[in-house]
Design a protein that fits this description.
The complex is a heterodimer of chains A (621) and B (606).
Chain A (H helix, E strand, L loop, with lengths): L3 E8 L5 H13 L5 E13 L3 H12 L5 E4 L8 E8 L6 H14 L5 E12 L3 H11 L5 E4 L28 H10 L6 H15 L5 H11 L1 H4 L1 H4 L13 H19 L9 H14 L15 E9 L2 E13 L1 H6 L1 H18 L3 E11 L16 H19 L2 E9 L8 E11 L13 E6 L9 H6 L6 H4 L9 H11 L2 H4 L4 E4 L4 H5 L7 E4 L12 H6 L5 E6 L4 H10 L4 E7 L4 E6 L2 E7 H4 L15
Parallel strand pairs in A: 9-10, 14-17
Antiparallel strand pairs in A: 1-2, 1-3, 2-5, 4-5, 4-6, 7-8, 8-11, 9-11, 12-15, 12-16, 13-15, 14-16, 17-18
Chain B lengths: L4 H4 L15 E2 L5 E2 L3 E4 L9 E8 L2 H6 L1 H19 L7 E7 L10 H17 L3 E7 L3 E2 L2 E2 L3 E11 L14 E5 L11 H16 L5 E4 L4 H11 L4 E4 L17 E5 L5 H5 L4 E8 L3 E4 L2 E4 H9 L41 E6 L6 H10 L3 E6 L5 H16 L3 E4 L14 H7 L2 H13 L3 E5 L1 H9 L1 H4 L11 E3 L7 E9 L15 E8 L3 E3 L2 H9 L3 E5 L21 E5 L5 E4 L22 H7 L3
Parallel strand pairs in B: 5-6, 12-15, 17-18, 17-19, 19-20, 20-27
Antiparallel strand pairs in B: 1-2, 3-4, 4-9, 5-9, 7-8, 10-13, 10-14, 11-13, 12-14, 15-16, 21-24, 22-23, 22-25, 25-26, 26-27
Helix pairs in contact in B: 3-4, 10-12, 11-13
The chains are: A alpha+beta (621), B alpha+beta (606).
């Protein structure tokens, strides 16, 4: 293999917007008075190029003569301190990815290996203590780390062939106390009761030990994020505390009970839940035919209404879809990626409904961003960093995918210091005739469309349901997701073509829970071949493939005979599409990995009765 | 309450050529819109149907009483929607709850009360919530988020009827339409419903010139925001006896501007409508004996968030001869020696570009035949096939259009590199040269496309050539972030066939949306461009003069340059998205918005 070439690229003084901004930021917000100058350099390590190719890459891709200075070595002066930052391994790095793709256009060979880092040089009298403070300010350990200043030996991935998926020997005989310990050790979001239930199910019905994949898949599927346990909890006793507003609340409760009577009849055993309270008024309006534009269907991807649209004087029925989504926890721990994927995820809901998403609204809540940095709570990022980082992330995703963000409003309130609020709401639309919805049948195939799968976001679904503690910043690393909007844009383009969408029987986006949820929800009986899931890098094991939350992926059910047609359309949009599963007769969720059957669960158990339709919106009425 | 313009303008608000209302309205783009309105994204043909979305939320009220917080939030989303033009009887909602973790029994009272509050409105107003989403882990140790319910309201309207919230004209009357509170501070929904239906009827009749919901800060804040957009003034009726209630929350309340000769009795009848005063053209607000100048109000409104989300860039140096550069007028428009009824436009789309739909539609509407071509690069073979197809596509066309977007996400560390690298492939370069040198073809690059043109040397040199240290370039905006807003640009030279339906000195309101739009070149090079008539367009202030001031010059471009051409004008690169306007859009922005560049490009071949 060829040698690694290292190059530093720095903006000339007239163009050093970022460096100057950072200097001002550190002086104003970290009170680094002794700091005189900040330099920011992009560092590239490139492998797999000839001399000539490298020199072209340098001229055309890695630097621009009018704005950049290029150097092969960086020698700091005595009053300069240097450190470098890189994203954690396994996180999507748009800079590395597109540098490699651009260079490939020159070479027209395999993509070269590119590693990128950002190097900061601080000039002035900075004490070691202050230097550490600056590092801490600039590096969020959940997504990035300080990079070595030396050149690495290789850029090639070193990975080991993963071991077979573990069978949980002895699990069937564990005592309740052991199970409680196990729940903690594995960091599961499900309760001890859930685990005991699983133990009983495997003991009595499957008559075998579960695999770790099965436990993780169920943990993901049952997490509050997916199952909404809070909203489904029975409220068997309601007391309204006496106080100034007792009366109106009591009246409102009576009104709610009266509507229930009208909707369900007086003799109903339906429990009172928050979900019911949220849905009841709409159920009543439906019953009274006061919601005629409701787009009723078995497949629910987003809120959907039927609207007549006049085009060149002719009326056509359209589906207008809208959806709101929060990403509070991910944004709190890594604002850029969390907010970016908030929008990415919100878009994929109507998009999976084959609507073209054209507009977004962003409503957020933050503590006072003017709070001095040193007043930041332990275990938290400063509000200033949170709000600026989240704005940068959300806007970068929206601007790149090409949808208009029509309203942005942030609410400032001290209590949002507990956790940021990051809401994305989107609008989508499609001609009704372009959206076909059919129940999948045995023999249909399931296509994984879009991005590749990595370790990103593993445990995101369960993570959001866990409560945030001081340790969250250092232990949630794998839960961070990075967006790749150009890939999602390709799906947007593909699904805007009615010739494509009429092939689609049902579609589900990869949100929380990855393969296990996105594909797992599509049909009653499924056989998934995890070896077909395209990977970002080698070394992922079956469990990781089953629950990874890598972004920009879509699961599509089509007839087997439509595959070639569909594949051609996807290829024309520069999109990867792979058959990863088939619909089966028997109602079981089955997953294979390296020939090993690592998941084989009864559908009935996978989706217990109380786990109502998780598909968004959770309140189907 | 403060302006969030610096935050909002990081977000592209005009892509899709569907934006009916810009987020900030008026000549000064300072009055925030009540929500968002966009035409339905039809692929072919024209529609006036537009969707709108608004939201309602107030964390202060939610903390004080989750029941009222939710009730007022839903109400606010409805009132804002109606203010924009929604029909109150067909609005649909989706709700977002965000609460602390449910630890103690009493915690359950928070979402319980909030959902009852929301249910009260849904039931009384007969508005269904189609869906919703809950997030129930808003806690950190013993800190908890406000008990939050945000309501989103959606409706589909005739976009031509949408109403914006900035005051339009001096002399107009402004009224406050109120909804009374009953016992327990519950709104009188019967009256609210009547009010909203009446307002909607008046909007359909074209009798409401501006409308806004009363929000935090009360009537005073509402009136202030409505004056700022067009720097108009407001005089409250004198004596104004209700000063104590100017700042109070008035859930369900609306502020409405009607014509100066409007008969309030005829418009509002028995409804509780309070005449507040008159819009004036002296930029100040007067209530009884107090007068506040527009400048003071703007300062107070905009400075709070400036250290976090700047709306203005650091000051740029103004060159002494900025205003001395002459306009350049071409006497006879440049035309192609061949007649082509429907010139073909080749639009390559690189990963991350996203303006191809809008641009293709603009060309097709102007009489061209556009072809969108997707760059495929998943394998080395796909790249080879792409190069061959591009060569063929260029050979079959008369125009190459490089659309806007973020090719390769503007990576690595600079925009347009992916496109430029592809075009430097010798076979593609040859096809481009052939189009330009032998076939009298045209090229246009907008935003990301302009960045690619300049990085190829096509502007200003007219040919693909290696870049030198002193080559003109486009680089990061001086404000250090993406900017999305409307700007005013002036035609400085109409040498280009792309501008042959304009006259030097014409000013247009154009959408910009970019992170790297700052034109930069040595001053001598720039002066030469002016002399050659190659500076096509410049950012100007409201007087029409080129300016270095932010935000009129949104990116700190030297000599306020927005667009330049090749020496003979057949290649034009510009930052502003001329393709994002068709009649019916950007209704809260004033001035001529149609630049006719696509039509001009097509006419060149006639």
């Amino acid at each position: 293999m060829s040698e690694i070439r290292r190059i530093y690229v720095e903006k000339k003084d007239a163009f050093a917007v970022e460096a100057k901004g950072l200097l001002a930021d550190l002086k104003n917000n970290l009170l680094m008075d002794g700091l005189e100058k900040v330099r920011v350099l992009a560092r590239y390590d490139v492998m797999g190029l000839t001399d000539e190719e490298f020199s072209q890459a340098l001229q055309l891709v890695l630097s621009e003569p009018p704005v950049d200075t290029v150097m092969e070595e960086l020698v700091p002066a005595a009053d300069e301190k240097v450190f470098a930052v890189e994203l954690l391994p396994g996180q999507y790095d748009q800079r590395e990815d597109f540098a490699a793709q651009c260079i490939q256009l020159i070479t027209q060979k395999e993509k070269p290996l590119v590693a990128a880092a950002k190097v900061f040089v601080f000039k002035g009298s900075l004490t070691d203590d202050e230097f550490e403070k600056v590092k801490k300010y600039l590096v969020n350990p959940i997504e990035a780390r300080e990079a070595a200043l030396d050149k690495p030996e290789t850029l090639e991935d070193t990975w080991e062939e993963p071991a077979d998926v573990e069978r949980m020997e002895g699990f069937l005989d564990l005592s309740e106390a052991d199970i409680a310990a196990m729940q903690k050790n594995l960091g599961l979001a499900m309760s001890v009761e859930d685990l005991l239930w699983i133990q009983k199910y495997f003991k009595e019905e499957e008559k075998r030990v579960p695999t770790i994949t099965e436990v993780r898949v169920l943990d993901t599927y049952w997490s509050d994020h997916c199952r909404h346990t809070t909203f489904m909890t029975n409220l068997d006793k309601v007391e309204i505390e006496p106080g100034y507003y007792t009366k109106p609340i009591e009246d409102a409760f009576k009104q709610y009970l009266a509507i229930r009577d009208k909707v369900y009849g007086k003799k109903t055993d339906r429990p009172i839940t928050l979900m019911d309270m949220a849905c009841i008024a709409t159920k009543k309006l439906k019953k009274e035919n006061k919601f005629p534009d409701n787009d009723d269907s078995e497949e629910i991807n987003a809120c959907s209404i039927v609207v007549p649209v006049e085009i060149d004087g002719k009326k056509e029925d359209w589906l207008v879809m809208f959806k709101n989504e929060t990403h509070n926890h991910p944004t709190e721990i890594e604002p850029f990626g969390g907010a970016a994927t908030c929008l990415g995820g919100a878009i994929r809901d109507p998009l999976s409904g084959r609507a073209y998403v054209y507009q977004a609204m962003r409503i957020t809540g933050a503590g006072d961003p003017r709070t001095p940095i040193e007043k930041t709570l332990a275990g938290k990022l400063p509000q200033r960093k949170l709000t600026i980082g989240a704005a940068a992330g959300y806007s970068s995703y929206g601007n790149q995918i090409g949808l208009a963000t029509g309203q942005v409003q942030e609410y400032y309130h001290d209590r949002f210091v507990a956790k940021r609020m990051e809401i994305g709401a989107v609008m989508g639309a499609a001609p009704k005739s372009a959206v076909i919805r059919e129940r999948p049948a045995a023999g249909d195939i399931i296509i994984l469309l879009g991005g590749r799968t990595g370790r990103d976001g593993i445990g995101g679904a369960t993570g959001s349901s866990k409560e945030h503690t001081v340790d969250s910043l250092s232990t949630c690393g794998a839960e961070v997701q990075k967006g790749n909007p150009p890939t999602e844009r390709k799906i947007q383009r593909l699904f805007r073509n009615p010739e494509v969408t009429v092939l689609i029987k049902r579609c589900n986006d990869f949100g929380a829970g990855g393969v296990s949820v996105a594909i797992g929800e599509l049909a009653e009986g499924l056989k998934i071949n995890l070896d077909k899931v395209t990977k970002k890098y080698a070394g992922l094991d079956g469990t990781e493939l089953a629950i990874s939350e890598s972004q920009e992926r879509m699961a599509v059910v089509i007839r087997k005979e439509d595959w070639e047609k569909f594949a051609k359309f996807a290829d024309e949009e520069n999109l990867e599409a792979t058959i990863v599963a088939e619909v089966t007769e028997e109602p079981r969720l089955v997953m294979y990995w390296r020939g090993d059957k690592i998941v084989d669960i009864s559908r009935e158990k996978y989706k217990p009765a109380e786990c109502v339709q998780r598909k968004r919106p959770e309140r189907t009425v | 309450m403060c302006s969030e313009k610096g935050l909002s303008e990081r977000f592209d608000s005009t892509i899709g050529r569907a934006t009916v209302e810009m987020p900030f309205g008026g000549k000064y783009q300072l009055t925030p819109a009540e929500g968002m309105v966009a035409q339905i994204p039809v692929l072919h043909g024209h529609t006036d149907a537009a969707s709108l979305m608004t939201h309602g939320y107030n964390p202060e009220v939610a903390c004080w009483s989750p029941f009222h917080g939710a009730m007022y939030a839903v109400t606010q989303s409805l009132v804002k929607a109606v203010a924009l033009g929604a029909n109150p009887d067909t609005i649909r909602l989706t709700l977002q709850e965000y609460f602390q973790g449910m630890r103690a029994k009493a915690d359950w009272g928070l979402p319980f009360a909030a959902l009852l509050g929301a249910n009260t409105v849904l039931n009384s107003m007969e508005v269904p919530a189609v869906g919703g989403k809950d997030s129930m882990s808003g806690s950190f140790m013993d800190l908890h988020v406000p008990p939050t319910l945000v309501s989103f309201a959606v409706n589909v309207i005739d976009g031509r009827k949408a109403v914006s919230s900035e005051f339009k004209e001096a002399g107009d009357k402004v009224v406050f339409l109120s909804t009374p509170l009953l016992d327990g501070d519950v709104l009188d929904f019967a009256i609210l419903r009547k009010n909203l239906r009446r307002v909607h009827q008046l909007i359909l009749e074209g009798k409401i010139k501006a409308a806004a919901a009363v929000e935090e800060g009360g009537i005073a804040a509402g009136i202030t925001k409505m004056t700022l957009g067009n720097a108009l003034g407001f005089r409250f009726v004198k004596p104004f006896p209700h000063t104590e209630s100017l700042f109070t929350l008035q859930p369900g309340g609306m502020l409405l501007e009607v014509a100066k000769d409007a008969d309030l009795e005829a418009l509002f009848g028995e409804l509780d409508c309070l005449p507040l005063g008159t819009v004036t053209d002296n930029a100040e607000i007067t209530v009884n004996d107090i007068t506040l100048a527009n400048a003071e109000l703007v300062k107070a409104y905009t400075e709070t968030l400036e250290p976090i989300f700047p709306a203005k860039a650091p000051e740029s140096e103004t060159p002494e001869d900025l205003l001395a550069q002459p306009l350049y007028k071409r006497e006879l428009p440049l035309t192609a020696p061949v007649n082509i009824a429907r010139p073909k436009v080749f639009i390559p789309v690189f990963p991350g570009q996203n303006c191809e739909y809008d641009t293709a539609r603009a060309f097709d509407l102007a009489g061209a035949e556009s072809k969108i071509f997707i760059i495929r690069n998943l394998t080395a073979q796909a790249i080879e096939e792409t190069i061959q197809a591009m060569v063929k596509g260029i050979q079959e066309s008369q125009i190459i259009m490089l659309p806007g977007g973020f090719s390769a996400g503007d990576e690595p560390d600079g925009s347009g590199k992916f496109i430029a690298t592809m075009f430097r492939n010798p076979r593609i370069t040859e096809a481009v040269n052939d189009l330009l040198q032998n076939r009298d073809g045209l090229m246009l690059g907008i935003c990301n496309g302009f960045q690619a043109l300049i990085k190829l040397g096509l502007v200003p040199y007219g040919e693909i050539r290696p870049l030198e240290e002193n080559s003109p370039t486009l680089t990061f905006n001086t404000i250090g972030r993406h900017v999305s807003q409307m700007v005013y640009t002036r035609i400085t030279s109409n040498k280009s066939p792309w501008l042959n339906m304009t006259e030097p000195g014409d000013v247009h309101a154009i959408a910009v949306s970019h992170g790297e739009g700052r034109f930069y070149a040595p001053a001598d090079t720039i002066r030469e461009l002016f002399r050659n008539g190659q500076v096509a367009t410049q950012y100007v202030d409201l007087k029409g003069n080129p300016t270095m001031a932010s935000p009129e010059n949104p990116n700190g471009s030297l000599y306020a340059i927005e667009g330049i051409t090749s020496p003979d004008g057949r290649i034009l690169g510009k930052m502003g998205h001329s393709e994002r306007y068709i009649p019916g859009l950007m209704e809260n922005i004033y001035g001529e918005k149609e630049q006719h560049i696509f039509e001009s490009g097509v006419k060149y071949f006639k």
